[in-house]
Amino acid sequence: MSKKIHTEAVDHLFEAVLCLENKEECYTFFEDVCTINELLSLSQRFEVARMLRQKKTYLEISEKTGASTATISRVNRSLTYGNDGYEMVFNRIGEKEE
Questions:
Q1: Is this model's pTM higher than 0.90 or not?
Q2: By CB distance 3.0 to 4.6 Å, which of 27, 39, 48, 83 could disulfide with 34?
């Protein structure tokens, strides 16, 4: 875990996220907390990670998501060298590599 982001404020944010009970509550909360562009960027990165796990090419991913190759590369680096956060979530939601 990165010590740079491990702050009391981030703890409070994560506690708030953990108390959300369904998708509708997530929409309500995240629409207040994030700008539309921030939320779309987060969801784009998640979609990029999902497609990378499915062995899609950068071109396929870029065409489907609109993500730049820099964004795709950054997400790929997180999948390869990160803290396995994406993997943990994909395993919990039951998404498997194709």
A1: no
A2: 39
